[in-house]
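HOLO CASE FILE
Compound: adenosine monophosphate
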Amino acid sequence: MKLILLGAPGSGKGTLAKQITRDFDIPQISTGDLFRQFASSGSKLGLELKSYMDSGKLVPDELTIQILKDRISQSDCKNGFILDGFPRTIKQAEVLRTITEIDSVILVDLAFEEIINRLVSRRICPQCGDIDNASYEGYTGNCRKCGTPLYQRDDDKLETVKNRLEVYEKNTSPLIDFYSDRLFKVSSKGTPEETYQPVKTFLKGLEAK
Ligand code: AMP
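Model generated. C-alpha cells follow.
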C-alpha cells in the first residue's frame, strides 16, 4: 500500500502516520525527519537544509526529490510506504508520478487557528520520536513512553509557524485538486484515536481489494 498524508504542518500527519505504521506494517517516510537527521549531522548539506527549515521555507524540489528517491528505493519500502510531508509542490507530485503509483491520499484537515495553538505547544521526544503537547493533561516535559526530556522544534515558534502555513496554502494546497481522484478526507479535530478510526476502516477496505 502506497499512501500520501496530505495536510498543513501541524494538522496531525505525523501522529496518524505512526498509527498506520503500527497496524499496517509499512514505514513512515517523513522528508522533514530525514532533513532534520541531515541537519543534526552538521555537514554542509545539513546546514543548508537547516536554514530552509528554520525560516519555514521549502527545501528546493531537486534536492528534496533526490533524498526521497534514495529513501523509497530501500528494501523496507518494497511493500509500500506512507509519505508524510511529501509531496509539497505540484512539481514534486509530478515527479513522484513518474516513479511510482500512489494508491490513496489521505487529507488531514484542521482549521489554521487550531493548528497554530497545537504547534506552538507541540513537544517531541528526541529519543523515540513520540509527539506530545504541553497543553495536554498529565504533561510533565518528559516523554510518556521512554522518559527522555522533550524538546520544541525550532520551526514550531510562532513566526515560523505562520510562514509555514502561508507556504502550505500557496504551494501545497493545490495538491488537493491534483489528487482529487484518490483523496480520502479526515478531520483531526478530535483525539488521535478519533481521527484514526475512519482512516483505519478505509485502509482495511483498500487492503482487501
Ligand atoms: P515537516 O517536519 O514535514 O513539518 O517539515 C519541516 C521542514 O522541512 C519544512 O518546513 C520544510 O522546510 C522542509 N520540508 C519537509 N518536507 C519537504 C518537502 N517535501 N519539500 C520541501 N521542503 C520540505
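CASE NOTES: The mean pLDDT is 95. Residues 9, 30-32, 35, 52-53, 56-59, 64, 85-88, 92, 155, 164 surround adenosine monophosphate (CB under 6 Å).
CLOSED: yes
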